[in-house]
Design goal:
- The protein is an all-alpha fold and 86 residues long.
- It has one domain (22-84).
- It is built from three helices and no strands.
Length: 86
Amino acid sequence: MKTITIEDKTAEELRTHLSKEKAPFKEIDNQFKKKYKTTLTQLERKIKTKGVPIKEHAIWEDSIEWRTAVEEAKKLTAILAELFTK
């Protein structure tokens, strides 16, 4: 891995930018936790074992949006950790 050096001001701007990018994904995660009163993992397990009733198809779509948001937030968290915890 190649190491680069950046100015403190640039580093802080990058940290701020990445944190702002992450915020909407965390908000989606929080909204769905509140809506379903469960975790994404538990909802996905329920969908897998019980299926989704035709009248409640939005649950499936929500789970996809929720999974995407969680994965994107994790990616940004990993980037921030890699860049700023060394």
